[in-house]
């Protein structure tokens, strides 16, 4: 089962929470070799990265994805077991998550579980990113059933380490509050900087400890990086990905490649450390 964070009465004060990077899905390793190689680079404050092969695990193991997955998994293993003291990808991050498209509740349960099994068997992922997750109260029971099953699969596999598996729900907006009890982390914003800088956080999120939420923002100018991070901290997001790519000029996905200011982005967050 997901290692859920319990709710509490302490409200966020905005500013003390440590941020980390979540990568919603780089392009195929053949198209984005530098991006995938950089994820296991010492000092990268990586919480998790999503592996997505053609909208899911694909029909068969992809050798290039196997190599990328192996590098990231090995970096995490070295950090967890203290075999590489200079490797600052710590126990709080570095997981590889398999991308599963829920199609807002439109895909059959057995099909979703089959995707999960393929990710576990082929790529030994440490969790799952459930994209296009429903946000309404009526779909919550079905999502809970799915996350309970996925948590059991992770627990029975040799993929999840001693920190357990990780389940992330990709709502891209604030969902019905009950979803916070169905997974480890919720993506509550995914969109352009022009919307993010004026965004408001749902009041119910203040009942949860910082780090239960993730924000993905594109079109963030370099000159507004610090402002964007202040917003993330104030709204209680523990995992972020900011980029100046904006989906124009032939870009199909603004999150598929590195922002032009990647090194500055990472340095502003600071190195990954143990929680």
TrEMBL record:
Superkingdom of the source species: Bacteria
InterPro entries: Spherulin4
Record protein name field: Phage tail protein
